[in-house]
Amino acid sequence: MSKFKKKKDGGLAPINTASLPDIVFMLLFFFMVATVMREDTLKIKNALPVADQVEKLDKKNPIAYIYMGKPSDNYKNFGTEARIQLNDDFADVSDVAAFIAAERAAMREELIPFLTVSLKVDKEANMGIVGDVKQELRKVNALKINYTTGVGDALSNMK
Amino acid sequence: MAKRAAPEVNAGSMADIAFLLLIFFLVTTTIEKDAGINRKLPPMEESDEDVIIKQKNIFTVLINKHDQLLVEDESMEIQDLRTAAAEFLDNNGDGSCTFCQGKRDSKSSDNPDKAIISLKNDRETSYAAYISVQNELVAAYNTLRNRRALQIGASKGFPNMNFQEMQLAHKDVRWTGNKTKLKELIDQIKVEIPQKLSEVVE
What we know:
The structure holds two protein chains of two kinds. By secondary structure, chain A is an alpha/beta fold.
């Protein structure tokens, strides 16, 4: 009788979860380190196209971001055509010059000639608005630009 | 009085707290894209004198509002653009380019230094198509530059490195090698095969 009982008692031992916090902490630290907080809250759709002849954006030099794309679903009242977003809000083509001036005013003087303008444009946007922005950038002499893209096969954009 | 042992802290909920934080960071993380195609816009100054460029030295690429390509007055698929552009740049019509392997067609470009690619797009052209075309044109320059880098790299002390690898190495802080010499070589190739990509603005 006692023999039977003993077998039943010593069933499956509970799994030791003492190291679970360690594992979770490890993951936590990874994500904490890898996280880059978004600089701007996007109000537009911003699916970038892909290209394979890309160069890395030099983080040592100052970068100004200009976003373009259709207003996202929450901002449908702004229309369905592609719009420009500067900092946190929609902007007009005429605001680009002031935006670049403000960016320049905020940075150290010796870095001003190295300002790169990163154009983050949704792949469904038209070239019209991009051309207008480029024209504005030429007017304020911000000539270094970067068409920011993902990395991938460029031919897949056209499908 | 007998010393009481310090009570053990119950760490059972530590995993829960850590999970909570982990999930927060998982949700908020966005991996920023920080690569792209670098371009330099032309300065605004108006020059009255017209630069005379021979028609044969210009490679015209047009993208219409349906994202179709018209290259040198013939329609073309995007897949063929890279080779067509590379052939045009590599043509070496006047024979002054020592490293070119082109057909020396008298109707195509004189040498890589004179060859200009002219890109025109419509206002309704999609940005995706524009980027694809830009990418293919840059790729055409890069194939020629890569070939040139492999030709002269060995004699300058950088064997088996193509142009793009040289550029990466030059930016890489962990790369051990003579960066001044590498920079000279990169600049030399850039002068030999300059990227002359002009965009038409109405």
